Amino acid sequence: MARDELDMSKSINEAFIKIILKQDTKSVKNFITAMFRGSLMMMDNLGIAVKSEEAMERYARYIDKPLDELDYVDHCMAVGLEGWRLLMEVERELILVRRAIAGPGSPGGP
Q1: Can you give the residue range of the structural domain that contains 22?
Q2: 23 partner at 20 to 30 Å CA-CA among 60, 64, 67, 107?
Q3: d(CA 45, CA 29)
Q4: Is the pTM here over 0.90, yes or no?
């Protein structure tokens, strides 16, 4: 990985870690609000791109309900859970980036 890519990854890593570790309380509150409202726009403003149709399809399969029977509450749940799933995916990736940046022999390194 090139140095510029590592620097960019480190910046992204630090931004998401602030959210994940709750150091940026406004972002955390906004994320929680976005989850409960099922707000695609709020998720997007936080940098979490939820694809509504995919979220609804995944949620419908999960609750074993036909897609055309999902209501507003189901939509909110689908978007919120998908946002959470995506955030956890990013967290797992950031752990790998952090280890790559730290290097062998460093705390948190490979």
Answers
A1: 3-102
A2: 107
A3: 13
A4: no
